[in-house]
Model the fold of this input.
Amino acid sequence: MGLEGKTILEHAVDRISASKKVDEAIVVTTLERRDLAIVKKCAELGIRVFCGSENDVLDRFYQAAKLLEPEHIVRALCDCPLADPKVVDKVVEAHLKAGVDYTSNTIRPTYPDGLDLEVFTFNALERAWKEAGLSSEREHVTPYIYKHPEKFRLLNVEHEPDLSSKRWTVDEEKDFEFVKRIYGGLYKKNRLFGMEETLGFLEKNPGIEKINRQFTRNEGYAKSLKEDHVVEGGK
Done:
C-alpha cells in the first residue's frame, strides 16, 4: 500500500529521521520470507536494517541495539505514517532532561494512536531482555519495563487536551483509507506536516474520522494478554 508515491514504511522512516534528536533511523524486522520486501526496500533507500526473531520481538530489538551500543533508544512503529518529528523531539527531550530509564507518551495515552513513542536506555532494554518471562513481554518489547516501576524510573509525556480517542495508525484497511485522505489533503503542501496540521484538516473535514472509528486502541497487545503464558527469557 502506498501514499503519495511512497510506502508507509518510507513515510514512517522519513518522519522519525526528521527528528532533531534522532541520530539514525534503523528498521528492525524478521527473518521471515514475507519480510524480504522490507529488507530489499531498505537496501534501495540506504536504510540500515536488522532481521531477528519473529515472535520474540524483545530479543530482536535487543540484538539490534547490542550491535550499535547506543546509550538511549527511540522506538517507533512503522505502521504510523502520521508520526510527528516535533512530538519525537518533545518525548526525547523530556527523557534526557529527567534522566530516567523509560519515557513514553503511552503509559497514560493522551496523544492520537499513531503518534506513540518510547525512549529508553540500553541498560533498561538489556535488563528486560534478561528478566522478561511472559510471552506478552517478549512479543511487545517494553511491557516488562513499564509494568515494573519498582525496578525502572518511568516518565509519561502528556498532551492537553486528551487526544487518545483519535486513531491515526494503520493496522486495518479502513485505517489506510483514513490516512490516505489526510495525505491527499496535506502532503503536497508540506511533506512533513505534523499533528497540528492534521488536527486542523480533520476539524475542517470531520467526516473523515468516521472511516476507522470502530477499531480499539492496542488490540494486538490486548490479544497477547489474553493468550499470555510463561516462556524462557533472555540468555
In short: Residues 2-226 form a domain with the Spore Coat Polysaccharide Biosynthesis Protein SpsA; Chain A fold (CATH 3.90.550.10).
